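Final report, closing paragraph on structural work. Over the funding period we assembled a curated collection of sequence-structure pairs, and we close with a single example.
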Amino acid sequence: MTERDGLGAAARGLRQYLLAVAANLDVPAWFCEVDVPAGAYFALDRRLTRFPGHETALLWDERDGWSAAVEPAGGDEVIVLAYLGEDVLPPPEAVVTFVAALYGEQYPGRPDAPDFRRPGAADGFDERLAAYAGDPVGQA
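Its predicted structure, as stored:
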């Protein structure tokens, strides 16, 4: 598995990408892990009417992209409801549309994990991330 420099172009690009999504969604809190495998957690401030006793979260990882989940009150593992399923790095606007459809009581996306890629694979993913930072991979 390939390492990812936490200060490198790919890691900075991932943070910029996630910041763009967070700004478009106006999320109250979020967290990201830039190492391989990269992932992110966004706390959403609204609950779904079909799950009133559960917090709602938006998750991202470098294998499956974005997913919507609920968190049981007891703090158990999150339960994924749907995957956006378009691309591992869809435009931030697509993520906003996915969340809006989720709150619109629709069942957006797909129920199964898309499995877009293998974390750490040399498939151009880090270069895509670096584009969000404005830097080519390998340059500071």
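DSSP finds three helices and five strands in the chain. The mean pLDDT is 87. We thank the funder for supporting this effort.
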